[in-house]
């Protein structure tokens, strides 16, 4: 048992933190909230050159050959600064699923461009129900002359406005007995005819989109994994994304704690720093419980993933804990700051808004507690 | 980063688990669950554990330990809890402090007895007017030639009625400018003339004690550390006890027992739909508390201060809260049956849940109340100002 990061991992953390402190100030974050694309192509190129997109991919595709645990550190640091842009969509929801389920040809075709920062990916999974279960997948793909024709609407698709490719989860057999059967994942060129994308106005202003597929033609060699057997891969994507999102959220709540502790040491009321008051101290202590709990569970899950151990159960525990924890940390941080932190131009609302968006992504606490309940033996 | 026990720790876990599976019989369990302190069966088990060097794995081999770390101690505590073997074993914790603060003669005199399960030592810190503010204790020790004369009262000294010795914090200098500078620590033979032990019973049915000292003569060689240096010894006891917690096998067993009960007894009822999620929530909290505790223990073994310095105290806060929530939820699941005592007709799950529910408030108070933990975390861990 060793809770420490390795020396290389500490170096990775420090260099990421230094870089992001310098290159990703809150002014940029706010600018990107208003920006049409939602990310800075210059910064995107810089992180590609630093090898961040390729960090966890094998060297044969141009990657850094590092682990999911190393990637967790990077995500945590990105979460600290509310890093804007399609990193998560491209790497966690695009590249890694292709590495995991793709054919050799697909890996050779797509991964090098992801790693070099040339292409942006996203995952089109959720639909009108907003849920992450198989029964909610209603978008249809119908076979026709060696191609598939996709029809239907995907909702809450991050970064689809700038994506070059979309992994589209579609129903290819609607006569299958179980909702989990008959689902296929397609790699869709986002410029294909029949795709229209509308950016939704979300609390995190993070470019979640409606993507309408209207007779979109996809060649059958663009099937990722097996025809009709896609749900297993999708579940893996959800679980891994839940872990990755938790790491990002950990970074965010750490920052809220740091900001709060620094503030209550300085803010004077009744002639003393408010951090003297036990009411405020206890807020901070409970924030620390949430943060340290999140760190323990997010890293346990990332460690299991990166060492080839089973991780489904830990992914559910992690996202269940972290989803609630981030809300509590933001609430206590806001309460400790007082009025100043509910002003739109304060940094705390940036985290407040992102905490909610992140909670809802890849299953909220309730969704994952259901999985934990199933693992305990309940039929829910 | 690594979340697994080392092969040596796993082997120790297997050994103590198998030992207790076999040796922790129903008589011992009945004594433990009675909350009346270690009885004859428990004492016998402790001696057997001692003979197998299972009681003090953290001590050096020369004192019948195994030279292992705080993690082995955590494993021991976890197995003892989940088997309902006799607990607490404050003697071992006190022995940790003796290893740091005791002299050679004291180590030779007490450690082998503790490690072999022959003797146990009760903590004697709290007094009626000194709880969290422990430096305010008043039990007076006056030096008189080759011994000290003790007068005063301690309270909530659990197991004192079944222990051989008392780890006693006394006041030797009432005029010290700072009150924590006038304290001294002794190991006192509880059979000494002038000691009276009276039972106190908690609302959860736990037998604890008040201990009265009336002109009790304690030889000088029983003074631990320096005269008026008792505060440093207390700190070493706290340090010595650092880590050592975290694993939650017992709590996870309780959750699984409840799940089984619900699946068998409460199927399909519409009003029970809340239960799976509530149990999942408890499992999540238990697991996270366990991870934090185990990591704090690992940090203690590595002699590294964890980020934010919070360590074990942070995990204890969560685990204490979770324990209360668990048994409160369990009582809600049992409904009206939950209120039935173990010897009542219709009592579910052998009355275990009610016993734990009634005992749960203790765990957020004993060994440093949650408020003290929060104070330490806030000021030492987060560096918040005291004034």
Topology:
The complex is a heterodimer of chains A (380) and B (387).
Chain A: H1 7-23, H2 26-34, H3 41-49, H4 68-80, H5 87-101, H6 104-115, E1 121-124, E2 140-144, E3 147-158, E4 165-171, E5 183-189, E6 195-199, E7 208-219, E8 223-224, H7 230-266, E9 268-269, E10 272-273, H8 278-306, H9 312-337, H10 348-360, H11 365-376
Parallel strand pairs in A: 1-4
Antiparallel strand pairs in A: 2-3, 3-7, 4-5, 5-8, 6-7, 9-10
Helix pairs in contact in A: 1-4, 4-7, 5-6, 5-7, 7-8, 7-9, 7-10, 8-9, 9-10, 9-11
Chain B: H1 7-23, H2 26-34, H3 40-51, H4 70-83, H5 90-101, H6 104-115, E1 121-124, E2 140-144, E3 147-155, E4 165-171, E5 183-189, E6 195-201, E7 207-219, E8 223-224, H7 230-240, H8 249-265, H9 275-302, H10 312-334, H11 352-359, H12 370-381
Parallel strand pairs in B: 1-4
Antiparallel strand pairs in B: 2-3, 3-7, 4-5, 5-8, 6-7
- Number of separate strands of chain B: 8
Question: Which protein chains are joined by the largest interface, and how many residues does each one contribute?
Answer: A-B, 47 and 56 residues
Give the low-confidence spans of chain B: none
Strand-residue proportion of chain B: 5-15%
CATH topology of the largest domain in chain B: Butyryl-CoA Dehydrogenase, subunit A, domain 3
The percent range for strand residues of chain A is 15-25%
Count of DSSP helices of chain B?
12
- Cα distance, first to last residue of chain B? 38 Å
Q: In terms of structural class, how would the helical and strand content of chain B be classed?
A: alpha+beta
CATH H-level homologous superfamily name of the largest domain in chain B:
Butyryl-CoA Dehydrogenase, subunit A, domain 3
How many DSSP E strands of chain A? 10
Fraction of residues in H or I helices of chain A: 40-55%
Radius of gyration of chain B: 22 Å
Counting structural domains of chain B, the number is: 3
The CATH homologous superfamily of the largest domain in chain A is termed Butyryl-CoA Dehydrogenase, subunit A, domain 3
